[in-house]
Write a structure and sequence with these properties.
Number of helices: 8
Distance between the termini: 27 Å
Radius of gyration: 17 Å
Shape: globular
Structural class: alpha/beta
Number of strands: 7
Largest sheet: 7 strands, mixed
């Protein structure tokens, strides 16, 4: 199934990608597209953490959602979708909400990359701290709600972000923890469209953000091999 991809990157790089160990935290609007892109790009060793269920409001933007799986567990449906794409994978799922109490049980040093696709700022900080303390590469998704134009998305570092309330709060908390602010992030500087407490969203920005997260790791692996 990866013959076209192998033409682009070679068999050696494809094997490295297959062996790369990835932790994906969050498989919603952003993380679902990240997982899709990873699986279709040859990544096979993926651990997915998410304790949420699919609901009707997810249908407009979350790739794992459909009319037939409302109220079902996101990680279970995500795994089923991945298996239908590539059954020869080693995807592990944990149907839990990651929090401060269970963090040490599920977040270990066994990963090459951590992808943060959640909204919980405290857990984002813990993931970044863990990654920096253990020399594990991490990339984080910032705010994609209340935004319409996917062309405003880019990959940069947290210290270079602007016009993103989540980024501002995250920078503040990282400074308190004396952590490095040069954390790779996917973010949009598009002005927030409304002030409703419910976060409005469409498919375009979270979908592209999710693919950017996967593409960052994909390209990082190829770059490392080019420099070796």
């Amino acid at each position: 199934m990866f013959s076209r991809l192998t033409m682009l990157i070679g068999e050696k790089n494809l094997n490295i990608i297959k062996d790369t160990r990835i932790l994906l935290v969050g498989v919603g609007g952003v993380g679902g597209f990240t997982l899709e892109a990873l699986v279709r790009s040859g990544f096979a060793n993926i651990t997915v953490i998410d304790g949420d269920e699919i609901n009707v409001s997810n249908l407009n933007r979350q790739i794992i959602s459909n009319q037939g799986n409302i109220n079902k567990k996101k990680v279970v449906e995500a795994l089923d979708r991945c298996n239908k794409i590539n059954p020869n994978n080693n995807i592990k799922i944990f149907d839990i909400y990651l929090d401060e109490d269970n963090f040490g049980k599920y977040i270990t040093k066994d990963f090459d990359y951590i992808i943060d696709a959640i909204d919980d700022v405290k857990i984002k900080v813990k993931l970044i701290k863990f990654a920096q303390d253990n020399n594990i590469k991490i990339i984080c998704a910032l705010g994609t709600g209340k935004k319409l134009d996917a062309s405003n998305l880019k990959i940069t570092t947290l210290n270079k972000t602007e016009n993103d309330p989540l980024a501002k709060k995250l920078r503040y908390l990282l400074r308190k923890e004396k952590l490095d602010l040069k954390v790779p992030v996917v973010y949009s500087n598009e002005t927030v469209k409304d002030t409703n407490t419910v976060i409005a969203s469409c498919i375009f920005v979270p979908a592209v953000a999710g693919i950017y997260l996967a593409n960052y790791i994909f390209l990082d692996i190829l770059k490392l091999q080019d420099n070796s």
